[in-house]
Each structure stands twice: as C-alpha cells, then as structure tokens.
Input
Amino acid sequence: SDAVKRGVEVTIAALMLLFLAPFLVVFIVVSRATIGCPTFFFQTRPGRHNRLFRLLKFRTMTLSTDAQGKLLPDAQRLTKFGQFLRSTSLDELPELWNVIRGDMSLVGPRPLLVEYLPLYNERQARRHKVRPGITGWAQVNGRNAVSWEERLEMDVWYVENQSFWLDMKILWLTLFTVFRREGISQPGHATCEPFRGTSHETATVPNPNPVPERPQP
Output
C-alpha cells in the first residue's frame, strides 16, 4: 500500500542521509570552492496531483553572466565538478530530504518543470497521479538520451504497473545506470532540450518481463 511504501522510503532516506553525511559535507566544501555559492539549487516543481513543492539539489553550474547580465548557456556554466556530480547523479542526493518531507518518493516519474504542465496530453498527465521520484523507469531506460515522448510514456507505464518488486528492480538498475554514466544528456545539449509538447498518445516502452516470441510455423 501507499502507506507502507511511504514508511519504507522515509526510513531508507533517513538512513542514507545519516550514512552519507560526511560525503555531503565534502561535496559542499568542494562545490563552494569550484562553483560558488549558493551550494544548493532550489526550484519549484509539480508533484503528486500537480501540488507544487521546492526541489532540492546540489548546484552544478556557476551563475556566470554575459555583458548584459544574462546567464551564459548551460554548457559554459557547467563546471568539471558539476559535470561529475551530474554524471554520477550525486547532485540528486539532497532530494532525500524531499522524500522525508513527503514531496517525493525514491522511485517514480522525475519531477519536471511547472511550465510543462499545460503541454502534456491527457495520457502524459497521468504521470502526476503518484509522487515524483529520485529515480524511475525512464531513468534506467535511456535517461535524457531518449525522446520526450518515450520518457513520458515510460512514466505513465510506471504509474500503471507500479509495485514493490518493480521499485526494487528500478533501484537495482539505477546503480548500474549511474556506474555506466549513460544517458546523461541529449546529443548536442549540456542536459536536454526543453519539452515543447506532443500530439502522440503512445510510444514504445521497455518491458521488464518481456514474453519471448513464438517461432512462426
């Protein structure tokens, strides 16, 4: 049930924060020396039932601006340490606090930008029926390297098929995805291009338990 999942995730998140505390302190010190202050990145994101909350992450980019005071492109502001945090997903660790607060789950669709809400079609909007997650089915099946249509369909597939065992599978696969550092960004982008909406209703979604095809007679 949702209550059991919530209790397990809060316990895991609290234990992880306690265990990782010394490493987080090191990240904060290095971040301040290489990226500057503030160390953390706060942004309003929509959660379950579109309820807004403040997402907490490590900042990976500087606040460098051009002569007109406009922020430089992401690729120019992304530091080597920031790239390391992003490629290993360590920039997501502060989101454990969002899990404890009840804004997020360990597993679920990633929380995206508020301005994307009116761009979803009816099916894609179903991703907000559950709490967003630190990792999810889309993150272990291509991450930012796949199209927006595929990612959003994978989010909906998770909502329709979520279970304790699927969550465990996703957490296990996340370790391999982070280790391989695959799908960090889309080709030609420091992160990924913005979502601009889609008219597609369906897309191909990886199945965790594929049924072998029978040979044709």
